[in-house]
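Journal club side-thread
Mid-discussion, someone asked how the predicted structure for our own chain would compare to the paper's figures. Pasting it here so we can look after the session.
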Amino acid sequence: MVERLSLQRQRRRPRRGTGFTLVELLVAITILAIVAVLGWRGLDGIVRARVALTNNLDQTRAMQLTFAQMQSDCSRVVAATLLQHPPVIADQARLRMVRYVYGEDQPTRLQVVTYRVRDGRLTRRESVATRDLAALDFAWQAAGNDSDAADALVLQSDVTVMNMRIWQQGAGWRTPPVPGEPVNAATVTNGLEVGLQLRGRATSMLKIFLLGAV
């Protein structure tokens, strides 16, 4: 009799399985989904920040190279007495200058260099170095009306605006003249200020160059 009662009690006890219930599985899956979403958002933020930092570094590196090239050109600007026009003219989104070209075992020559912003790209062109003033004047005119055949080197992309001012002896800082305004060739230009505004940046990068420093 006692053994029968003991067996009946054992049969009435609920069996406890070793697996998870459906509710526990749903809770676990929900927690894993939340953790996965949070992890993905964090990883996505890190990737975006890395891409933005890389782009900024590339822009800064390109800007440093651009200003270094401008510094080299400006330091070799010819004297105003050698030409019938100013050696440096900054107009609408374009900078033209005549500079010396020094070569090993070669005589000093002259060259026209043009910086131009078009379609968001800042390019640099240089004419063939020459000692012929007539050929130099032809290259100067060709650079002014965009008919020069020299290859353009892209220095900087995503440029929205290039602002320039020139420092003239006795007149101070002046903005570039409007198209068609006469330019006094006798006025000595000593300095050049260039500001480049890049897309996505709140402020422009500004650099001042001394003309004919070398």
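Post-session note: The mean pLDDT is 80.
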